[in-house]
Input
Amino acid sequence: MAATYVGVRLYEKYQEFNPSQTEKDAFPDADNSRNLPVALNTTTTCDQEGNRKNLPQNFSRVSLASVGLFAISKVFPMAGPFAFLAYLYAVIPYLKDVEKSLLKDRKVNVDVLFFIGDVLTLAIGNYFTAALGLWMMHSGKIKVRQAKEASERELTDIFEKLPNKVWILVDGIELEVPLDQIRDNDIVLVNASGVIPVDGKVVSGMASVDQKALTGESQPAEKGVGNTVLANTMVITGNLQIQVEKSGRDTTASQINKILLNSASFKSGVQLKGEEWADMATLPMLGMAGLCFSFLGPVSTVVFINSHIGNRIRVLAPMGTLNHIAAASRKGILVKDGRVLENLHRVDTVLFDKTGTLTMEKPKVVKVIGTKKYADDKILFYAATAEQKQSHPIAQAIVEKAEESQIPLEKIHHSKYKIGYGTTVTLKDVVVRVGSLRFLESEGIPIPDSIKTVQADSHLH
Output
């Protein structure tokens, strides 16, 4: 086993100073490699990254194969050498951890202690047990990695809704270009149901924008000329021309995503304290293992060594943190630091920095204010009839209120909707306008001060 590991390490050193023929062909010299097509460099990098990600899974599979072969070798001895070869391959990353601990960190940690236990297990001929322990070690690391990737995926999905291509305005002509070719001061066009791909300022148009993913506010915001918009928000109605200020990794959404992804790498205080205790217990346990070997023999010594809590802390502690981060993100709660989760039981007061995060996700009509000329139901009838074809959340809330009140609506064939203002509909001889105060005032409709003080979301004339 030692000879195999030394050979592997020497080969890796040789590879570092002597690149393969494929690499030489792809990159004749370091200076010229910078002039190669981007696709070649990207493909090579992706392949290497993919191979690195698959290595832990490969080691786990080979270690499991060695478990099976050692079990078969009890009946078919010829399987024994193949089982041991598989074990030698699968133990390489484990031995690298041991080497790092002894030569680089210069300390005896959990890896070294368990390595001694594995050597004793092999020495007494319990090859199946050694292979099983190695497979369990690889499986534990893979489970932690999978939990981390799942947590990162849960977090990343929130902010990875950007289109691959976007429309920009160049000299009055609309062109479709890849998102990664967007530059500052470009004019990006976004229509209804489209995701805003950049941070920037609106230079033309008006729209209702859903910013919930970034701000927590469930109500859409009205955006017009001069307003700032952020990437990963969605245009519900209307259209915008946006002058790019930030794109790609510089956007606010990307920065938030980076912070959230880092939260999956934090170790909780419990984990850090547990690892500290495990390291402190390693040397005393090694000494006690020596005494145990002298008086009780190798089998009892192996059992004693494997009672160490080090690997359990490495697996269970991060799994607990990562699973809770993922569960919180599914509920719309984003955790910037995984370490805060363990302190939640001490929290007795929660402060919110703005009321927008405390609103209901869907608006609801709670009161209709009638007039002498129009009763409450008549006002609701006109408003719901005018808004029945609109997708705006407030329009939908008005229609739902009419349905709850069992008010039948008339079909409308023509309506005029002004983004950010309101809707105008003609029902027989009645002109119905539904919208904001500024809309009604722009239409020349006098609004009594008593109604203005109510500050209702919609008014009807």
In short: The first strand starts at residue 165 and ends at 170. The mean pLDDT is 77.
